[in-house]
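Now for our target.
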Amino acid sequence: MFKFFLVNLLILVTLGCAGPGVYVHESDASLTETRKAIVKLYGEPRNLSQNGREIWTRHMDRKGRILETAKKGKERRYAHIKILGERRPYDILVNVVVEGQMIDGTYESLGDDEVLAEQLAAEIKKELLKSLENRNIIDDFNAF
């Protein structure tokens, strides 16, 4: 009986753990406005998914400043930003991945930076709130 209880407790704890990253909940901005805000804050993305809902920023330092040359530092970070949801309001997931330089010069993932992820999520939320005056009522609606 005790083993059954212990196994169930472990399963609940495992399933209940939150994944890495910080959420910006219920953003009323359209997809294009959200992408424009991210590009305005962090420059052109290093990589963009086919549907435009996943954005990988250029490499950053510990404070979130974009690095001009990412190959000099022993440690670098980048943000992986996901726009979640079928329609408004969207949720935005910000995850910051830390990479360290190995002996052979390649970079390997060391983990996540939750503090910087919170900072970037707050910046994105602030930028999206600025653009509320000139938003579209319907997502990407073009009359003609």
Summary: The chain has three helices and six strands.
